[in-house]
Amino acid sequence: MVVPTRAGAIGMLPLPILGFRIEGFRSIYKDWQEIGPLEKINIFIGQNNSGKSNVIRYVSRYIIPALSGKAPESLATDLPRNGYTTPSCTWMLFPIHEMYIEKALPQDKKPLADRFVTLMQMLSTTINDGRMIWLPVEAKGSRIHKNADVLNAIIGKHTRDKEHTLLNFWQHLRNGSGGNVHDWLTDILQVFISPFFYSVDVKIVQALRRIDTRLEEFRPEFGASAGNDKIIDALAALASPPWDRQEDRKRFAAIEHFVNSVLSRSDVKVEIPHDKSTININMDGRVLPVEALGTGLHQIILMAANVIAVTNSVVCIEEPELHLHPELQRQFMRFLESEGTNQYFITTHSAHVMDATDAAVFSVELKEGSTYFRRAIGRQSRRSICDDLGYRPSDLLQSNCVMWVEGPSDRLYLNRWINEKDSSLVEGIHYSIMFYGGRLLSHLKVEDSEIDEFIHLLPINRFPCMLIDSDKRSSHARMNDTKKRIVREFESMSAFCWVTKGKEIENYLSDETRNVASKMVHANAREAAYRGNEYCNGLAYKTISGNVIENVDKIKFAKAALTLETDWKRLDLDHQVSQLVSYIKRANRIIHEQ
After folding, report:
1. How confident is the model at residue 221 (pLDDT cuts 50, 70, 90)?
2. Domains plus CATH for the chain?
């Protein structure tokens, strides 16, 4: 499990919230629900009254105060029903990583960091996977919950060796003596969690959002400002910061850049008048207050302004899709993905919001009066959520170019490579990526009905293109007849079809990249299993003990590999990506500059 991080002033920092469990809160009361592991963007999708908003309430009233060492902001309406009680502790997810542990240790104890990692990994496997661990935190502050049964569960199977290890480490950590195994463990865990508890702000962007206007002529429509609307003041501070906060101008420039991308312009200016009465949009020689724009533009600019006004915070957004065309929904989600150091919790009914980013997606469902959460891992799980919502592939008609790939990892590679060739091309605006699944092209019968249905689907979009793994085991091997048929169909439409020169897309990665990525994803990896072979399993790796592991999580591997430099000389990668970029530009009628 890769620990999710965010960019920060001192390098990569852990997200404020990596995971938590909810129990005894509003509609979540029959069984505790695990929300995690979390990412920078976390999406909760489900039907009306399923309990989505309760996540935002719990985060803002319980988790954020706990991180700041404060008492929860509980209300009478938060209490569970039918005799269920609120637990006295909250289980939270923490990373087991030497970098974070070192921060918790005084200078003379920092050499213990490596042993600290080993000790944490020794605890019960029901709460840790070697990289992250669930621990109980007091509901009223940043303290480990000291309960004998809970501590025994954390330790797992009691052995004399395990108790000796805990005592020995505790003595080195505290230079103390005495106590019992529960005292030692509590003390050790308290040191372990200390770097992750600090003051975190929370910003809630509600579904019914507007700027309470300070302009007289718009008060009948928007309502008069009561003087407590801080968003315009915050933007004014970013636009004209004091001498020692000039970096804030970049955040204001990000808002301006986003507005230009939404309007497909490059010359639009965002301005705050001296009286801070509104947000002005300056374009085509005209200056208009944001209140005079269409509802969709008003909404998306307001949401973006709320997001950019805060940093290193937790931002909760309710139903960002309201009044927004699907394309604007995607643009806003990409804005969240690219800007700022915040962590986001989003409730939605929109499949467009869900599909726009590589977010953590949770399905929310109400069963017998209680709310249940299910993390959507993988394409099939996300597809079932779309089915529940009545989602249809209307993107085929609306997208300028539809790119068919086997799965989510292919999407990660293509987006990175396209961006390196031309950063102006954006998924969801200039092209869409859809998954066909490798099983489809593994069919041996060329005339299979599923193949026929897929082929009939292709011409719905005027500019379809496709990436196919050759799956060849050697340079002399041949593709199966089904793939050959697909290639012929694309040729007949004068459409772009890319068949990998090697066995699969991972073979476009250099041996060194695969070595490093394997070590980043797998703690026991020594190196990539196969070197100098473009027809091998590019994901496989050798363990420290020499075993070869073939079954690897493609998405985690891709995310790790794409943090490294692209080798454009690898096979025909440069040629194929250049051809693909030209095809996307043609689909969007982008004229090449001379």
Report:
1. very low
2. 35-68+314-392 (3.40.50.300), 79-197 (no CATH), 208-309 (no CATH), 395-501+572-587 (3.40.50), 507-561 (no CATH)
